[in-house]
Specification:
elongated, mainly alpha, single chain, 4 helices, 0% strand
């Protein structure tokens, strides 16, 4: 009976509550644990946001202030200049040596032809020179004949 009175007090419509609905007092006991967990999560999120804000502030400060290089003394500048000159002289002297080393390395990579291949290729080159020479000789002889014929033709017409 006591439950019925509570149901009537809590329910404004006058209808009895369903079995699925719990009493508000019972729900708060179960939900306290969930609320505590939610509060812990919110606290962690707030800490993360504060860390992000601190990081952004540090980043902005780092971008605003350019890094300063320490000034060099005259002695340091002179020593650096001498070192550069020495490196340049050494580089010039090594250019020939490096070129010869590179040349030697490249020559080791070359695949040299055998004696038979050299003789065959030489024969082909000599044959092609002879054939082309004959074609040029024939073209020259024909051009000579054509030009002589034209000259004799025009000399008869003009005289």
């Amino acid at each position: 009976m006591a439950n019925n009175k509570k149901n009537k007090k809590n329910n404004n419509s006058g209808k009895p509550q369903s079995q699925d609905m719990k009493d508000p007092e019972e729900v708060t006991d179960d939900d306290e644990e969930i609320l505590d967990e939610d509060e812990e999560i919110l606290d962690e999120d707030e800490e993360i946001l504060e860390e992000d804000e601190d990081f952004e502030d540090d980043l902005n400060e780092a971008e605003d202030v350019p890094a300063k290089k320490p000034k060099k003394t005259k002695e340091e500048k002179e020593a650096e200049k001498k070192a550069k000159e020495k490196a340049a002289k050494k580089k010039r002297g090594n250019r020939l040596i490096n070129w010869l080393r590179d040349l030697r390395a490249e020559l080791k990579k070359v695949v040299w032809p055998s004696f038979g291949q050299v003789m065959r290729n030489t024969g082909i080159v000599l044959l092609m020179v002879l054939v082309i020479g004959v074609f040029i000789w024939i073209f020259d002889a024909l051009a000579h004949l054509v030009i002589e014929a034209l000259i004799s033709l025009f000399s008869e017409v003009l005289s």
